[in-house]
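Sample intake sheet
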Amino acid sequence: MRIETERLVITEFTEDMARDVHLNSLDEDNRRFVPDEVFETEEEAREALLFLMSQYGSTEGPLAYPVLTRGGENIGYVQMVPLGNGSWEIGYHIAKKHTGRGYATEAVKAFLPVMADAVGTGEVLGICLSENTASKRVLLKCGFVPVFEGTGEYQGGQREIFRSVWANL
Protein backbone atom coordinates (compact mmCIF):
# COMPACT_ATOMS: atom_id res chain seq x y z
CA MET A 1 0.00 0.00 0.00
CA ARG A 2 1.17 3.48 -0.81
CA ILE A 3 -0.95 6.61 -0.62
CA GLU A 4 0.69 9.93 -1.42
CA THR A 5 -0.61 13.39 -0.64
CA GLU A 6 0.93 16.79 -1.18
CA ARG A 7 3.07 16.47 1.98
CA LEU A 8 2.72 12.87 3.18
CA VAL A 9 3.25 9.23 2.29
CA ILE A 10 1.17 6.47 3.90
CA THR A 11 2.80 3.09 3.40
CA GLU A 12 3.35 -0.21 5.22
CA PHE A 13 5.25 -0.56 8.47
CA THR A 14 8.66 -2.21 8.43
CA GLU A 15 10.47 -3.60 11.45
CA ASP A 16 13.15 -0.90 11.25
CA MET A 17 10.49 1.70 12.16
CA ALA A 18 10.32 0.41 15.76
CA ARG A 19 12.42 3.22 17.21
CA ASP A 20 10.30 5.93 15.57
CA VAL A 21 7.07 4.22 16.63
CA HIS A 22 8.36 3.95 20.20
CA LEU A 23 9.39 7.63 20.34
CA ASN A 24 6.20 8.88 18.63
CA SER A 25 4.08 6.97 21.14
CA LEU A 26 5.56 8.61 24.24
CA ASP A 27 4.01 12.07 24.05
CA GLU A 28 1.53 13.23 26.68
CA ASP A 29 -1.44 13.33 24.30
CA ASN A 30 -0.98 9.68 23.38
CA ARG A 31 -0.66 8.74 27.07
CA ARG A 32 -3.81 10.71 27.87
CA PHE A 33 -6.07 9.72 24.98
CA VAL A 34 -4.88 6.27 23.81
CA PRO A 35 -2.71 4.78 26.58
CA ASP A 36 -2.93 1.30 25.06
CA GLU A 37 -0.89 2.63 22.11
CA VAL A 38 2.09 3.78 24.21
CA PHE A 39 5.22 1.66 23.78
CA GLU A 40 7.60 2.23 26.69
CA THR A 41 10.49 0.46 24.94
CA GLU A 42 11.66 0.00 21.39
CA GLU A 43 11.21 -3.75 21.83
CA GLU A 44 7.51 -3.27 22.75
CA ALA A 45 7.11 -1.19 19.60
CA ARG A 46 8.86 -3.88 17.52
CA GLU A 47 6.53 -6.58 18.85
CA ALA A 48 3.50 -4.43 18.03
CA LEU A 49 4.86 -3.74 14.54
CA LEU A 50 5.41 -7.44 13.85
CA PHE A 51 1.78 -8.11 14.76
CA LEU A 52 0.51 -5.17 12.68
CA MET A 53 2.61 -6.25 9.71
CA SER A 54 1.11 -9.75 9.96
CA GLN A 55 -2.33 -8.22 9.34
CA TYR A 56 -1.42 -6.81 5.91
CA GLY A 57 -3.28 -8.58 3.14
CA SER A 58 -6.23 -9.47 5.39
CA THR A 59 -9.40 -7.67 6.30
CA GLU A 60 -9.34 -8.82 9.92
CA GLY A 61 -7.36 -5.88 11.25
CA PRO A 62 -6.29 -3.77 12.85
CA LEU A 63 -4.88 -2.35 9.63
CA ALA A 64 -2.29 0.25 10.64
CA TYR A 65 0.04 2.24 8.42
CA PRO A 66 2.77 4.77 9.17
CA VAL A 67 2.43 8.39 8.13
CA LEU A 68 5.69 9.73 6.75
CA THR A 69 6.61 13.18 5.53
CA ARG A 70 7.73 13.39 1.90
CA GLY A 71 11.25 13.55 3.35
CA GLY A 72 10.75 10.13 4.99
CA GLU A 73 10.30 11.19 8.62
CA ASN A 74 7.90 8.91 10.52
CA ILE A 75 5.41 11.26 12.23
CA GLY A 76 2.56 8.94 13.21
CA TYR A 77 0.02 6.47 11.88
CA VAL A 78 -3.48 5.95 10.56
CA GLN A 79 -5.46 2.76 11.04
CA MET A 80 -8.76 0.98 10.51
CA VAL A 81 -9.87 -1.13 13.44
CA PRO A 82 -12.67 -3.71 13.20
CA LEU A 83 -15.36 -3.34 15.86
CA GLY A 84 -17.34 -6.47 14.97
CA ASN A 85 -20.55 -6.90 12.96
CA GLY A 86 -18.77 -5.43 9.93
CA SER A 87 -18.18 -2.05 11.61
CA TRP A 88 -14.85 -0.25 11.36
CA GLU A 89 -13.32 2.64 13.30
CA ILE A 90 -10.65 5.08 12.13
CA GLY A 91 -7.66 5.69 14.37
CA TYR A 92 -4.77 8.10 13.99
CA HIS A 93 -1.98 9.76 15.91
CA ILE A 94 0.51 12.40 14.88
CA ALA A 95 3.44 12.86 17.27
CA LYS A 96 3.19 16.02 19.37
CA LYS A 97 6.12 17.79 17.71
CA HIS A 98 4.27 17.57 14.38
CA THR A 99 0.76 18.57 15.48
CA GLY A 100 -1.00 21.77 14.50
CA ARG A 101 0.07 21.52 10.84
CA GLY A 102 -2.92 19.67 9.41
CA TYR A 103 -1.07 16.38 8.97
CA ALA A 104 -3.75 14.27 10.69
CA THR A 105 -6.52 15.77 8.55
CA GLU A 106 -4.49 15.30 5.37
CA ALA A 107 -3.67 11.68 6.23
CA VAL A 108 -7.21 10.72 7.29
CA LYS A 109 -8.81 12.33 4.19
CA ALA A 110 -6.49 10.37 1.90
CA PHE A 111 -6.69 7.10 3.86
CA LEU A 112 -10.45 6.82 4.44
CA PRO A 113 -11.80 6.16 0.94
CA VAL A 114 -8.96 3.79 0.06
CA MET A 115 -9.33 1.72 3.22
CA ALA A 116 -13.14 1.78 3.26
CA ASP A 117 -13.04 0.22 -0.20
CA ALA A 118 -10.31 -2.25 0.85
CA VAL A 119 -12.35 -3.57 3.80
CA GLY A 120 -15.67 -3.36 1.95
CA THR A 121 -17.50 -0.88 4.16
CA GLY A 122 -19.63 2.11 3.26
CA GLU A 123 -19.18 3.85 6.59
CA VAL A 124 -16.50 4.29 9.23
CA LEU A 125 -16.90 5.34 12.84
CA GLY A 126 -14.80 8.02 14.49
CA ILE A 127 -14.70 7.78 18.29
CA CYS A 128 -12.63 9.86 20.69
CA LEU A 129 -12.82 11.29 24.17
CA SER A 130 -14.99 14.41 24.26
CA GLU A 131 -12.11 16.37 25.77
CA ASN A 132 -9.90 15.52 22.78
CA THR A 133 -10.84 18.65 20.84
CA ALA A 134 -8.04 18.20 18.29
CA SER A 135 -9.32 14.75 17.27
CA LYS A 136 -12.89 16.01 17.11
CA ARG A 137 -11.75 18.80 14.74
CA VAL A 138 -9.93 16.29 12.53
CA LEU A 139 -13.01 14.08 12.30
CA LEU A 140 -15.28 16.99 11.44
CA LYS A 141 -12.84 18.35 8.81
CA CYS A 142 -12.75 14.89 7.23
CA GLY A 143 -16.53 14.74 6.79
CA PHE A 144 -17.55 12.77 9.86
CA VAL A 145 -21.02 13.60 11.14
CA PRO A 146 -21.58 13.65 14.93
CA VAL A 147 -24.04 11.00 16.13
CA PHE A 148 -23.48 10.94 19.90
CA GLU A 149 -21.72 12.80 22.67
CA GLY A 150 -22.01 11.65 26.27
CA THR A 151 -21.03 8.81 28.58
CA GLY A 152 -20.09 5.64 26.75
CA GLU A 153 -17.70 2.71 26.59
CA TYR A 154 -14.11 3.72 25.81
CA GLN A 155 -11.04 1.55 26.33
CA GLY A 156 -12.65 -0.66 28.94
CA GLY A 157 -14.35 2.04 30.99
CA GLN A 158 -17.17 4.56 30.97
CA ARG A 159 -15.94 7.93 29.72
CA GLU A 160 -17.30 11.06 28.05
CA ILE A 161 -16.99 10.27 24.34
CA PHE A 162 -17.65 11.82 20.95
CA ARG A 163 -18.92 9.40 18.29
CA SER A 164 -19.25 10.26 14.61
CA VAL A 165 -19.71 8.49 11.30
CA TRP A 166 -18.27 8.96 7.81
CA ALA A 167 -20.09 7.64 4.75
CA ASN A 168 -18.26 6.61 1.59
CA LEU A 169 -20.52 8.22 -1.00
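Comment: The domain at 3-121 is CATH 3.40.630.30 (Aminopeptidase). Residues 103-119 form the longest helix (17 residues).
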